[in-house]
């Protein structure tokens, strides 16, 4: 059993046993890169697992090694913050299928070559299986809480539904229990953009000196629009021009919003693997807790003793409030204690990552219950 | 002066004078492909100009020569229909910059080679300039009405704002007076998808035997999602699988919505030119009636004597009701008579093309006023 790290630790765990997957295969030699913050207490009951979103990573509250930027939830996680690392032992693993140290399509297969598209197609539940193997190795039995936004929220819900004794509290922000058709559609557009890039080469681009950066950039641009609200785009950019007095009557980035999007696309390719993008969006489109238990979402939570907290944002059109409300109804039907709040925040789906003080209070309050 | 065609006529007009453009250039030898339905009456006052949307064309109520499908507004335009061709002389031109016979980037430049990216960047107002040249040639002075949905509505508004005596009625459906930032963003994604395709070759692909079909297909897929409502996607497809009993754990189109989108993308490339897509979306992102007259939308309509009718749809998130409401306020401020209605329709932005009987009644009623 691994010992808990004292303050912040960045580690990679290699699993000794093969990880069973929903596709029917097992994956040997899985590596899980993770960060921890704070310490596990003597009773071993203060662990909080935080699950990251689609293109997130384990750099929750520590500097990202590629971008040099603060951790993606630095504002929420730390001493005295909404998730207080003086009290909680916070664990954040990079998800299975990703590219920041955890096994994924860019990792070496048993033959020493990158898996590429030979990597098995994974699910959200498979990501959670990897998380649980990590918790086992860290000596964490029952979590004080599992927490996540967006795809992180789906992992939290999957953990609660499939391993009902493993967490006492489940906090899912801007999430869903069943990926809606519009989101499946946007995810498919992203994958098609990557696969349309000739540099993708059927996924076998790792040793070619080329990568499908252009396609991945387009995928990121399209996705990025869905993370923001119309109001944010209008207020932040409106129709303002970029470094020019007048329209160019050409195809340069005349508008600030065009320049911003291009930057988002290009910078993303510097930190993310295109095949990981395919695998992770595929896992999201497959996510359907109701289907896993016969078709009724409430049945997913029958055996669950955890308390639940669901948060949505009024301007989030990608995972709108109705998705959280459906979850709340299912949890009510299953007799689970659930609180559900829709917060007013202008930033759209990305609100869970941004300055929404009310969210900090909701999270801190829920972890205290 | 050309004579009005008796029933349905499909014609191409070649302008004898160069067309002045907003970019400062003039375009010589412009050809305008158009269809007409019904006859111009002796008083010459029963003409209705119908302007098509981004990827529409002149095949308003006649079979499309490539797809073999009925005209895009066949349900609205014809004898006894909402726009009654027994009463009105209906004219539908292919817009400048498009690819169905009107001059655009795929047309021959003076050197005999396709214009490609040498074609000047055009605006919505330039499209209207071409329409007016066509009306002049057809002997139509003042229109009974100018009508359009989406980008067609923007042309109608541009005509009213810039040539205030040219139409007695202006009907703009699911349109805007100033392209919002989110739409500029989606338009940019589409262009980047096309230009990321190596077959685009800087736009000079016409004689290479290759076309940026993969990029154009991705652009269309992304755009197509924005034309539909979340509810339509959920009801029409939900999470249903395509011709299979179970998920494939692969990257095929497992879901019906994925298969549908791929089909929309692929079939689009068979009927549309990628460079035209760039030019037309650029014209849309440049559209800003307020900017054209100093910054205040109301000032765009100061001299206008026309009656206006604005229609929005409650599930249209691409051109939401607020856009039409802003227009209505501007027209009120300008003292123009305007009726504005938000219709309940489940189909999102595409509602203007689909079965919404209330729209037929609104249009027929407005044309009768």
UniProtKB/TrEMBL annotation, chains A, B:
Q: Where is the AB hydrolase-1 domain?
A: 47-355
Q: Gene3D superfamilies, alphabetically?
A: alpha/beta hydrolase (3.40.50.1820)
Record: active site = 150, 316, 349
Catalysed transformations (reactions): L-homoserine + acetyl-CoA = O-acetyl-L-homoserine + CoA
Residue positions binding substrate = 220, 350
Keyword Transferase appears in the UniProt entry = yes
Is Ribonucleoprotein a UniProt keyword of this protein? no
What Enzyme Commission number does this protein have?
A: 2.3.1.31
Gene Ontology molecular function? homoserine O-acetyltransferase activity
Q: Which SUPFAM superfamilies match?
A: alpha/beta-Hydrolases
Q: Which keywords belong to this entry?
A: Acyltransferase, Amino-acid biosynthesis, Cytoplasm, Methionine biosynthesis, Transferase
Instruction: Name the source's superkingdom.
Output: Bacteria
The pathway where this protein functions is: Amino-acid biosynthesis; L-methionine biosynthesis via de novo pathway; O-acetyl-L-homoserine from L-homoserine: step 1/1
Pfam families to which the protein is assigned, alphabetical = Abhydrolase_1
Predominantly, its location class is cytoplasm
Oligomeric form and interacting partners? Homodimer.
**Described purpose of this protein according to its UniProt entry:** Transfers an acetyl group from acetyl-CoA to L-homoserine, forming acetyl-L-homoserine.
The similarity comment for this entry is: Belongs to the AB hydrolase superfamily. MetX family.
Name of the protein described by the UniProt record: Homoserine O-acetyltransferase
Gene name, Swiss-Prot/TrEMBL: metXA
């Amino acid at each position: 059993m691994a010992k808990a790290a004292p303050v912040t630790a960045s580690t990679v765990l290699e699993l000794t046993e093969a990880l069973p997957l929903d596709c029917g295969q097992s994956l040997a030699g899985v590596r899980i890169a993770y960060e921890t913050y704070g310490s596990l207490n003597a009773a071993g009951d203060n662990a909080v697992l935080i699950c990251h979103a689609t293109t997130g990573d384990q750099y929750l509250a520590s500097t990202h090694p590629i971008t040099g930027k603060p951790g993606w939830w630095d504002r929420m996680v730390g001493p005295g913050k909404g998730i207080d690392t003086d009290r909680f032992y916070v664990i954040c693993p990079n998800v299975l299928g990703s590219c920041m140290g955890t096994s994924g399509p860019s990792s070496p297969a048993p033959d020493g070559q990158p898996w590429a598209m030979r990597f098995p197609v994974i699910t959200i539940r498979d990501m959670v299986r990897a998380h649980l193997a990590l918790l086992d190795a860290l000596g964490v039995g029952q979590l004080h809480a599992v927490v996540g936004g967006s795809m992180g929220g789906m992992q939290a819900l999957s953990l609660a539904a499939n391993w009902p004794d493993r967490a006492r509290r489940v906090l899912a922000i801007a999430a869903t229990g069943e990926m809606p058709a519009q989101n499946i559609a946007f995810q498919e557009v992203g994958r098609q953009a990557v696969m349309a890039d000739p540099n993708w080469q059927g996924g076998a681009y790792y040793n070619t000196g080329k990568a499908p950066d252009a396609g991945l950039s387009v995928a990121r641009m399209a996705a990025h629009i869905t993370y923001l609200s119309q109001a944010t785009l209008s207020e932040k950019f409106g129709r303002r021009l970029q470094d020019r007095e007048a329209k160019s009557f050409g195809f340069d980035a005349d508008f600030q919003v065009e320049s911003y999007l291009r930057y988002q696309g290009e910078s993303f390719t510097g930190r993310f693997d295109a095949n990981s993008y395919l695998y992770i969006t595929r896992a999201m489109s497959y996510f359907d807790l109701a289907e896993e238990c016969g078709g009724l979402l409430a049945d997913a939570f029958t055996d669950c003793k955890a308390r639940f907290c669901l948060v949505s944002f009024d301007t989030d059109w990608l995972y709108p409030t109705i998705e959280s409300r459906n979850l709340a109804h299912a949890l009510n039907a299953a007799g689970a204690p659930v609180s559900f709040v829709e917060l007013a925040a202008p930033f759209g789906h990305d609100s869970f990552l941004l300055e929404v003080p009310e969210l900090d209070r909701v999270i801190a309050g829920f972890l205290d219950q």
